[in-house]
Design a protein that fits this description.
single chain; alpha/beta; D-Maltodextrin-Binding Protein, domain 2; three-stranded parallel sheet; three-stranded mixed sheet; 14 helices; 11 strands; disordered N terminus
Length: about 375
């Protein structure tokens, strides 16, 4: 282009041109950088947990999930978390969510085992070599979710469910003495829930299902002689160390449980796709975070039980574990004979476990060997 100007037309100087361009560019950048602003009030969903507030790690984990939902949505989607009994009783959470009395819940599927025994297969069923991590894998990649949704339909629950926090295997629990033989526990009055009630009954134990808050008082008064709840942190929060000094870790009665988060279907479908995705993906995020937290807290509280409260800690004997597996074989065998749908779920789990656990168990080195190489006999290690 010629440097000559057109007659009668003013040409801006280079300095003025670049100054104007700089102002325009800054304004555009400010527009791009401006954060998204939520218009209108945040959407708040009411959730009731099956756990008491205060010093309760399960309620804390429910709170972790609620915070993640709020953080991921920029505060546009919030969860009003309520403790056990604030709106309905624990056993009524599923129906309350289905009917819309609650938007959401936080509990475990074993708590609706009474409506359909298949509920226990989604967290408190037989292991087949799987831990809770692999059961959650079956849920999402092995056909479990479709079967879970069919189970919900059969019991009349109208909700969408998410899962998080793959729990470590639950302890066999608290006893008045060290129990190593099946004969030691035969006839013993014991607390557990879900299909584990059938399994331990098959072992000859006298099983009573009690809510968590009633376990310690029941053991103190002699209503039960032994009990399990879930883990060293929760058990110590219940004060189990005040009624027993013999704690048995590792058991197949409930070796792969996780939390269930039911969400009212109408409420869920009324949310934006982004908010629906947040409820789902916050469960995945809490899944990892809660597990990391559990390993740190459970091990620290086990140390306190041993060192401050002088609790004797044992690994459940192979004799008792083997008898638990026999109990599972009997219970599952009885159910599959009379319930075709129950059998359908069991067959799906077995198919998944047979392939996945073949790889996993053969691929994993003996981690206990590595631990003992460094620290010595695991039963004698002080933590």
């Amino acid at each position: 282009m010629s440097k000559k100007t057109i007659k009668g037309v003013k040409t801006p100087s280079r300095r003025k041109f670049f100054k104007a361009a700089a102002v325009t560019g800054a304004a555009a950048a400010a527009t791009v950088a401006m954060p998204n602003i939520a218009f209108g009030a945040p959407k708040t969903l009411k959730m009731q947990a099956a756990w008491p507030s205060g010093a309760n790690i399960f309620f804390e984990m429910a709170g972790d999930y609620a915070k993640m939902v709020s953080d991921m949505s920029g505060g546009e989607l919030k969860i009003d978390l309520q403790p056990v009994g604030s709106v309905v009783k624990t056993g009524e959470i599923g129906q309350a969510v289905s009917s819309g009395v609650l938007d959401m819940g936080h509990w475990v599927t074993a708590y609706w085992y009474g409506k359909n025994a298949a509920a226990s297969l989604f967290g408190t069923g037989p292991s087949y070599g799987m831990s809770s991590q692999e059961v959650m894998g079956w849920m999402e990649y092995g056909g479990g979710r479709k079967l879970y949704e069919e189970t919900l339909s059969k019991v009349g629950f109208d909700y969408v469910g998410f899962f998080h926090m793959p729990m470590p295997a639950q302890p066999f629990g608290w006893f008045k003495k060290n129990v190593t033989k099946v004969s030691d526990v035969k006839g013993m009055k014991y607390r557990t829930v879900g299909l584990a009630t059938n399994v331990l009954t098959a072992m000859g134990m006298v099983v009573r299902q009690l809510p968590g808050g009633e376990i310690q008082p029941a053991m103190k008064t002699g209503l039960i002689e032994a009990a399990e709840f879930n883990n060293p942190t929760s058990d110590s929060q219940f004060g189990m160390q005040d009624v027993s000094k013999h704690y048995h870790l590792g058991s197949f009665h409930q070796s792969q449980e996780m939390f269930e988060i039911p969400v009212n279907k109408k409420t869920f479908n009324g949310l934006s796709p982004a908010h629906q995705a947040i409820l789902k993906n916050a469960a995945y995020a809490a899944n990892t975070d809660n597990y990391f937290k559990a390993l740190v807290r459970y091990s620290a509280d086990l140390s306190k039980l041993m060192n401050q409260h002088k609790v004797n800690v044992y690994q459940t004997s192979d004799e008792i574990l083997a008898q638990q597996l026999k109990g599972w074989d009997k219970v599952i065998g009885d159910f599959v004979k009379k319930d075709a749908f129950f059998k359908k779920i069991v067959d799906s789990q077995k198919k998944y476990a047979k392939r996945v656990m073949k790889y996993l168990l053969m691929n994993q080195p003996n981690y206990k060997l590595a631990y003992e190489n460094e620290f010595g006999n695991i039963a004698k290690v002080k933590i």
